[in-house]
Design brief:
76 residues; single chain; 3 strands; alpha+beta
Length: 76
């Protein structure tokens, strides 16, 4: 599993919008407002929303492992 930090850096390099505090939303065209957050990533899908600090993107594997252990439908 890749890092959302790598995805963030790639998308930013490709011109994906980032606000003045370095926050980025991925997967949604809905207006999203970040307040009190810096260098955060919001990933929105039809099934779930993930919000994380860019620097903690490697910790997403823990969420994945938890979902996998519980047999969550989010992984299928």
């Amino acid at each position: 599993m890749g890092s959302f930090e790598v995805v963030y850096d790639y998308l930013k390099q490709q011109g994906h919008p980032v606000d003045a505090s370095g926050n980025m939303q991925i997967g949604s065209d809905k207006p999203v407002f970040f307040t009190g957050l810096k260098n955060s990533i919001l990933v929105d899908t039809d099934d779930a929303t993930l919000v994380l600090q860019k620097s903690a993107s490697q910790n997403v594997k823990e969420i994945y492992q938890s979902l996998e252990a519980s047999g969550s439908d989010l992984l299928f």
